[in-house]
Each structure stands twice: as C-alpha cells, then as structure tokens.
Design brief:
This protein is α/β, with parallel strands linked by helices. Helices cover 36% and strands 16% of the residues.
Length: 170
C-alpha cells in the first residue's frame, strides 16, 4: 500500500489554505475578517526570508491565497499585480491581516495587464530596481467571464483565456 508523502511545508500551506472558504464569486478569505490564526510552526523548510515576489492575479482568489502564503513564509515584499486600478475588498483585508501579524512581509498592489507584455516587463523591472532583487513569480492571472461549462465557450473566448495563460511562456 502506498503512503502519501507529506512534508512540513505542505502541512503549513494546508493550514494556511484551510482558513479560506469558497463562495460563488471565488475564494473568500474568511480569516481576513477575524483574528489572525495563521500558524508559523513547521515552516522552517519553507522559509522565504528576504525574498521579493510578484503574483499576477493577486487581487483575489488563488492569486491572493498565494500572496498570503508567500508573505507569511517570510518574503520581504509580495507585489500583487491585477487589472483593477485599485485593489478589492479581499486584498485590502489581506493587507490588514498581514500588518497585524507583524512578522510577515508586506503586500503591495499594482495595476497591470498581463496581455501587455512590454508594460508588464517594465513593471517587473521597476519592482526589481526598487527592491534590489526579484526572486519569485507566481502566474495566477486568468479570465473566465460568466461561469459556464467549458464546452460552451466559443473559439474566440477560449483563445482569449489561453492567451492570458500562455503569455508568460513567451
């Protein structure tokens, strides 16, 4: 019988992820509106001390979850890049939570469109220059539109979804 291999870092990430609950519009970070409950023990092998990260799609959902995980793992700064000019309610609550933790890195928000590669590269260069380094990039940006079965997408809609995801590989 095969036994699953579970590292301390995956348990730490699981502990962080379990504070979230799903709602109709995506991931709702329930812990953001209550007392901080994120635990740091068991993360010695997942320390990101003094690292600088970028998370595309970091305004909400899985991107914001990744940004929280990176921040609580010791990153100095996590830059959340997303389309809206201003961050949403969940992002603001996440930033407040990180501030209350005291030993987590800071969250920064910047508006960016991953489909505009030249502007995106300039944004990343500006961040790297400001911080003196760039260590991590999480590509979590995506588009879905109105929720529906994947077979109901037109060829043009599916091409736009893929364009956002594939853009990082060029």
């Amino acid at each position: 019988m095969l036994k699953p291999i579970v590292s301390r870092s995956s348990l730490a990430i699981w502990r962080l992820a379990r504070v979230s609950s799903i709602r109709k519009t995506g991931v709702r970070l329930s812990s953001l509106h209550t007392t901080p409950t994120i635990q740091r023990e068991g993360r010695e092998d997942f320390a990101l001390t003094d690292r600088v990260a970028i998370v595309t799609g970091g305004n909400r959902g899985l991107g914001l979850e990744a940004a929280l995980a990176l921040s609580t793992a010791g990153s100095r700064a996590v830059y959340c890049l997303d389309l809206p000019e201003k961050p949403g309610e969940d992002w603001n609550a996440a930033r407040e939570l990180i501030g209350r933790l005291g030993n987590a890195g800071r969250l920064e928000y910047m508006s960016a469109d991953v489909r505009d590669q030249k502007r995106l590269l300039k944004t990343v260069e500006d961040i790297a220059t400001k911080e003196g380094r760039m260590d991590i990039c999480v590509a979590a940006a995506g588009i879905t539109g109105v929720p529906r079965h994947c077979l109901e997408y037109t060829a043009e809609e599916l091409a736009e979804v893929c364009h956002v995801c594939i853009r990082y590989q060029k």
